[in-house]
Amino acid sequence: MGKSQFDFEKGVNLALDPNLLSLPSKKSPSSPNAADQQKEPIVPPATAQEINELVSNPYEIYGKMPLAQLVPLILQQKQIPFSELSQDYILKETSEKVMDSNDAMDNEPQLPDNSKSNFSTMDASESYETIRSKMIDHINVAMNESSLALETVSLLLSGVRENNAKSSISPYLKRNVPMGSLNSDRIPINNSNNVKKTNEKIKFSFGWKLKCLDDSKLMLKKNVDKLFEIVRRENKYWQMISQVIVNTDVIFKLRDKLSGERLIGIKYGFEDSGSNYHLDRGIAVLKNNTELNQLELIPYYNNKNFSIHDSNIRIGYTFIRIRIFTKIESEDDFILSGESSITNNDSTNIRDQIKKFKDIIFEKELMYQLKKESSQLISYGVKIENENKIMIELPNEKIEIELLQVDDLSTVMNEQDNPKINDKRANLILITLRLLLVVIFKKNLRRRSTTNSISNHNGSYSEDILLIRPILGKLRHQNYKILLKKIIKQNILDIIESSQCQEIKITRKPNNDTTRTVDKHIDKLNKDIASFDNLINTPVSHFEVSLPDRKDSFKLVLESPNYCNAIISVKYKDPLNDNRAFDAKFTELKEVEEFLYFIITEYILKKETEEHIPIKQEH
Known about the structure:
- By secondary structure, the protein is of the alpha+beta class.
- The protein folds into 4 domains: 18-156, no CATH class; 193-242; 250-464, no CATH class; 471-611, no CATH class.
- It is built from 19 helices and 14 strands.
- The strands form 3 sheets. A 5-stranded antiparallel β-sheet has the order 6-5-9-8-7.
- Strand 3 (283-289) and strand 4 (294-299) form a beta hairpin.
- Helix 13 runs antiparallel to helix 16 and helix 15 (468-493) packs parallel to helix 18.
- The protein is elongated, with a radius of gyration of 62 Å.
- Residues 1-6, 10-55, 111-117 and 453-461 have low confidence and may be disordered.
- Residues 19-47, 102-123 are annotated as: Disordered.
């Protein structure tokens, strides 16, 4: 009565005196000496006042705590804000605690003086050690059980993941127990009540399987129909291609750079025919238009952003137009007197489109070669006015060569007036230019086929470009002939009666190449090139002026070695005097006129009385 019993279920309050933790620990009751320890007399528990004095030591806990930590701790314990913590509040609380402690002391029965002498500090420490040892035993048991559970889990895990189990299993088990020796199985419980549910599940699974089979059947049927449609479409596509492609066409595989779609390309350029034009590759794409159910031919450009599905692709018309302007005698102006005709090729047939693309790239290369040649003929009246126009100036006329690029031919055809006098001549000039470009192609093929010409060639083919020079040479040579005939008439025919001037036609021998040909194909190339010799060879004209009743005569030869300049050879020999002979060459017509006048006056007219040559009297 009046004694406070210690509650072993609750244990000791954790707010212990730190000095007690340094006491030596007793042996655990589970040790072999536990029985001896239990035989010792158990010290009765101390009173509530003694326990409070033993456990609660606020000074040891809060005495040396800084004020910055102590104040928040007090506020937390009191559950009040800092604004309510005042001196009056602390005094009031302190007085209440003093009153409560006094009341407790009054109510507690007074123990006899001899009872206090039975308790000592050692008894209290022994009681504490007993409680502490029990707590340690409980902790050890819990740790043993957790270790055993961990070992069991590790052994179970070693059957499926051996490396992960080795990291958590104890060294003892690792040495004595093989990995994967412990396993577990799930044992189903046979319950008659679940048979009905199982049958329902089986029926439900049968339904799902039937539904899956139906879905698979529909999917397979859909894919089969799709494959048949693809086969039909591919068959039709290749049939259309076989109808438009011939043996001479070059087809190959392409891929769209933007969409990655596989395409079929057709080569319509003239690279294999001897062309050196690299500004346009001459490649088109055969596109299948599913909406119109037909093939379309689209030019292919080597550009990163090019796609056959681009709606901005325009397939226009490109052609060369020749115009002839004749000078008006009364005025210093020119009038249009001839224009080449335009062929309209607006068919949707693939073969016609291929021919159209070939014409376009042929006209582009023709203009490219014309500009390349015209840059060397500026001194002969050939001017490059812009990128697509060349002007050839002659004494009485101008010839305009222009590359037109239009989307609609009707706009150009409407501009053409009624037929003009030089329309046929303009068409002949255009045809001649195209034929001369074909000759260049054949020469390039021959150059590629013969190794000697390739090794000896310096790499510049500008000298082999003969497009404007043959035509310009013919026109200038014709003008030189007119002037030379006029000089002959004024200086010989008009002075000496019955004198005659006759132009002698000389047939040139074909230029037989003495080099050994490789095969019959090169022989055929040589024959094809030789067929254009009359057009390519430099113009030469022979004139013979015969005097009446005399054996002497004048022989004049007009030739153009570089197609543009003129060289006149004059030969005269006196049959009565072998020492009197002349053979001179001139580059100016004025010099020819002076030379003829000198011979007539100095050698012919002085002998008129001796040889009785009739001389026309000048009026």
